[in-house]
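ARCHIVE CARD
CATEGORY: sequence design from structure
SOURCE FIELD: tokenized fold
FIELD CONTENT:
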């Protein structure tokens, strides 16, 4: 459904604040993005996915922590199970994101970053657009906390305003699924590093140019994040950048054989 064919919502004034923050800072926190019933259902569905679907996923759609049997990352859940596809198409999410862009949005894919207690590894600083190659970069990720996200258990950090720097050079990153990283986070005196401390059900929505990362989980608590990815209808893939990226990924896979 496109923006114009949906009824206008009374949430308009409310969402304008979120939109202003998103454009100014490159990310915005939305408290209680999922209500308690929705969150309980996501929890239940994720358990079911891990037990019943993960054993038949293709290589690359599940990553494990190095030297451990704990899951670090799940990709493309929506490709295996309609529940996740329906969640990507949740009307309230689409309306909120469309209010940010002023255009229709299209769902891309869903992922889970698991970051298990004691073993969850760090995610290197990166821009999502180093993987996605959208021009204009009118696309975003909705990172939904399934557990409390704290500094201790490895919440995501954002380099505030860094989306205004445009596409930055990335070097090799060696923590799957991260094959790329920025060598240095942008100068924190100009682009302050802000931790997204969240309660379960809260979300942080970031623009794909915003540099972000997370630290190891050294705590006793798992820190699971569900990520829902979207693009605006005007965002086009830069085909050359995408082809270069795919060649790079193929090369890494060949080395991994
Ligand atoms: O959840 C994390 O720790 C990392 C998330 C992330 O880097 C991403 O969504 O691109």
């Amino acid at each position: 459904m496109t923006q114009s064919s949906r009824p206008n919502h009374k949430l308009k004034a409310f969402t304008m604040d979120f939109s202003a923050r998103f454009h100014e800072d490159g990310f915005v926190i939305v408290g209680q993005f999922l209500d308690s019933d929705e969150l309980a259902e996501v929890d239940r569905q994720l358990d079911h996915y891990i037990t019943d679907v993960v054993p038949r996923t293709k290589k690359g759609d599940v990553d494990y922590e190095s030297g451990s049997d704990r899951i670090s990352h799940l990709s493309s859940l929506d490709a295996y199970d309609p529940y996740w596809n329906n969640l990507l198409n949740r009307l309230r999410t689409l309306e909120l994101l469309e209010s940010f862009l002023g255009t229709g949005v299209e769902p891309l894919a869903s992922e889970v970053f698991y970051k298990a207690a004691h073993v969850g590894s760090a995610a290197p600083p990166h821009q999502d657009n180093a993987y996605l190659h959208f021009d204009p970069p009118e696309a975003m990720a909705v990172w939904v906390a399934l557990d409390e996200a704290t500094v201790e258990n490895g919440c995501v950090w954002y380099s505030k305003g860094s989306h205004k720097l445009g596409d930055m050079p990335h070097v090799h990153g060696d923590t799957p699924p991260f094959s790329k990283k920025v060598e240095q986070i942008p100068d924190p005196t100009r682009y302050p590093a802000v931790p997204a401390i969240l309660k379960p059900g809260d979300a942080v929505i970031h623009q794909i140019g915003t540099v972000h990362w997370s630290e190891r989980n050294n705590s006793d608590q798992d820190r699971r994040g569900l990520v829902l990815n979207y693009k605006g209808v005007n965002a086009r893939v830069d085909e050359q950048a995408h082809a270069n990226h795919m060649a790079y990924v193929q090369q890494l896979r060949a080395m991994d054989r």
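CARD ANNOTATION: The mean pLDDT is 93. The two ends are 42 Å apart (CA to CA).
SHELF: design records, drawer C
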